[in-house]
Amino acid sequence: MVALFLSKQMNERIAKIEQFLIGNPNDLFLHHALALEYIKLGEEEKAKHYFEHNLNVDPNYIATYYHLAKLLERIGNTERALTIYQDGMNIAKAMKEQHAYNELQAAYEDLAEL
To answer: Is residue 65 pLDDT above 70, yes or no?
Structure first.
């Protein structure tokens, strides 16, 4: 019963985000939020689609790199995950986003050691 309630809540959030996207189709935060909701539902391909959309539209949207790479790790695409982490580190360094760089580097190193 609880799982059904939570699933319904997630679907309602997805519907709200999709509604916002109709009025703001280029809002990268909304695409990112939608991807995170799909991850919670276990719909990795849908989540991946929205993360990749963000990278294609704006490669400087730094939050996408970590979450996309973690998703790729989870679905077993280690090589691509490592590449995404590296790309994110390069962007974070260029943007002088030290916190993001450190998070990406730590995740990259953890994965590279496996």
So the answer is: yes
